[in-house]
Amino acid sequence: MAEIPAIEPTWSEEDPEPLVPGHAQRLEELKGLGEAEYFTYLKGSRYLAGARDLRVLQEIHTAFLGRANSHVARMMIGLPRLPVEERKIRGRAINLVKKWLAEVHEARRRALEAAAESSLAADATEPGQQRPWVGHRHVLAQVRDELLDLFHGLGYSVYVSREVELDAYNFTRLNFPPDHPARDAHDTYFVEGADGVVLRTHTSPGWVRAMEERKPPLRLVFPGRTFRAEQVDASHMDQFHQIDGLYVARNVSMADLKSTLNTFARAIYGGHTRTRLVPVFFPFVEPGCQMDVSCAICNGTGRLGESGERRCPVCKGSGWSELLGAGMVHPNVFRAVGYDPEEVTGFAFGMGLERIAMARYSIPEIRLFLENDVRFLTQF
Ligand code: DAH
């Protein structure tokens, strides 16, 4: 026969009464049922109550309640051969021992776990622990990534283009006439001593580079930083961010442009958003337009207040806010990159990230984006 599990000298005993009120009555009850049951419960419950940690507790549990060779398992060995009446009494007694030991075990386990937890709790007298500074992406990077993700879902890949650009890409091949006002030093940063080199004023030059490198069809987005020699104020900075998009293939139409931009606008502003296209001139598209979305603040009504007594300050009462520029790629741009405008057509669109982020989070000041004040940055 297998060995009776040892009682380890390292185990210590403790009165289980505080853990399981009613313990004394249980002992009384068992005394009347059988000696072996009484002593097994007496010892087992005292050792369990005295277990100093979870590992020892588990050891004691195995010795008393384990399936094989435990004290309880041993008591059951002769059981089937006993006369019916006695078997009933002993069986009931053994079941009580099992149940009650399990209760002491559970109570002790909880107490040990609670103690372990509270020993981890703050001790106000201890010296402070240095918490590592956990950073996160800038609010503009978050908005950019959200938009890129959306366009990714529509089949667009990202094309990264340069910030220091040639005049030829920023203007000429985008069909800007030589005397266009954007080419003036009042609007554009020219790189000193490098003829024809500018800081890009928009992300549209990316299209020219992409089309020169690749054959149609193309479906690309162009995120990045752009620069203009602006007078800085609450809504103008001399650097900001844009995302352009370009889709070139056979038979691309204005209807495709419209459905793509509607999908996009409703994904960022919600399914109820209304849109409209308003004709606007840009040299690199024909026709060109701007897309407006119904103002999210006044829900397109232009009015605020219970009976509409106040003019909406965000859309200035118009009910619309301008979201982006767009249009059908101008045939001259296709010619400049060696595409045949009789073969392919395409649409393009471009938007400012700061404007979208400012509208989304009611940010009143464009300069906040670059000041790196953590009180601002941690809000997003
Ligand atoms: N590049 C223009 C700007 O910076 C915006 C723009 C308008 C982009 C029309 C486009 C477009 O792609 O089709 O003001």
What keyword list fits this structure?
elongated; BirA Bifunctional Protein, domain 2; 2 domains; single chain; 17% strand; two-stranded antiparallel sheet; alpha+beta; 380 residues; binds 3,4-dihydroxyphenylalanine
Describe the structure.
There is one protein chain. The protein has 380 residues and is an alpha+beta fold. The chain has two domains: 23-115; 139-377, BirA Bifunctional Protein, domain 2. The chain is 38% helix and 17% strand. The chain has helices spanning 23-31, 35-50, 54-65, 71-75, 84-120, 139-153, 167-170, 205-213, 254-269, 331-336, 353-361, 368-371, 374-377; strands at 157-158, 164-166, 197-199, 218-227, 239-249, 275-279, 285-294, 303-304, 310-311, 320-329, 345-352. The strands form three sheets. The protein has a seven-stranded mixed β-sheet, with helices on both faces. Strands 2-3 form a two-stranded antiparallel ribbon. The chain has a two-stranded antiparallel sheet with strand order 8-9. Helix 6 crosses helix 11 (353-361).
Kindly summarize this structure in a few lines.
The protein is an alpha+beta fold and 380 residues long.
Distance between the termini: 70 Å
- Biggest sheet: strand arrangement: 1-4-5-11-10-7-6
Q: What name is given to the CATH topology of the largest domain?
A: BirA Bifunctional Protein, domain 2
Bound molecules: 3,4-dihydroxyphenylalanine
| Total number of helices | 13
Q: Provide mean pLDDT, rounded.
A: 92
Strand % is 15-25%
> What proportion of the residues is helical, as a percent range?
25-40%
